[in-house]
C-alpha cells in the first residue's frame, strides 16, 4: 500500500517526520517530543468471528474492550496479532496510519480524538509519523464515532 499516493489521490495535506524505529506511541512521543495527546494509536482488533476492525484512540488513552464491544455490536474483541494487523492494513504494527489501509474495515474513532484539529499517527513504517487533519481522517474513513477509551 502506498500511503503517499493514497493521500495525494484524495487531495489530503500531510507532513511526515522521520524518527528512530519505535513500536509504541509512548516511545514515539519520547523520540519526537510530540505530546501523547497529539498522537493517535490505530489498533486492529478481531471479534468473536475473527473479523478485523480498527479502533483509533489518542495515545494518552487506552482502548476499553468493553466499550469497543458495545460500540461495534461485537460479543467479544481482542487485539489482533502483529501478523493479522499487517495483513489487513498493509502496514507493520507501530507504523499503521489511520487511513489508507489495504482492506476496508469497520473503524471506530474515540470521541476524544475529535478534540484535536491535527493528529500524528503511524506513517506506514516504524520510523515515520504523519500529521493529518482529524476532519480529513473522518471524511476518508466515515468511522463510527463513540466513547471507546479509558484514560
Structure description:
By secondary structure, this protein is an alpha+beta fold. The protein has a single domain, classed as YbaK/aminoacyl-tRNA synthetase-associated domain (YbaK protein), CATH 3.90.960.10. It is 26% helix and 29% strand. The chain has five helices and ten strands. The chain has helices at residues 3-9, 25-32, 65-72, 82-89, 134-141; strands at 15-18, 40-47, 52-58, 62-63, 77-79, 107-110, 118-122, 128-133, 144-146, 149-150. The protein has a five-stranded mixed beta sheet with strand order 5-2-3-6-9. It has a three-stranded antiparallel beta sheet with strand order 1-8-7. A hairpin with a 4-residue loop joins strand 2 and strand 3 (52-58). The chain is globular and about 40 Å long. The model has no long low-confidence stretch (mean pLDDT 96).
* SSE ordering: HEHEEEHEHEEEHEE
What is the CATH-assigned architecture? Alpha-Beta Complex
The portion of residues forming beta strands comes to 25-35%
What radius of gyration results from the CA coordinates?
14 Å
How many DSSP E strands? 10
Work out the count of structural domains: 1
| Strand adjacency order, main sheet | 5-2-3-6-9
**Helix fraction?**
25-40%
Report low-confidence residues grouped into runs of 5 or more: none
What is the CATH H-level superfamily?
YbaK/aminoacyl-tRNA synthetase-associated domain
Coarse structural class = alpha+beta
The global form is globular
Largest sheet: 5 strands, mixed
CATH topology: YbaK protein
Q: Which CATH first-tier class would you pick?
A: Alpha Beta
Number of helices: 5
| Mean pLDDT over the residues | 96
The first-to-last residue Cα distance is 32 Å
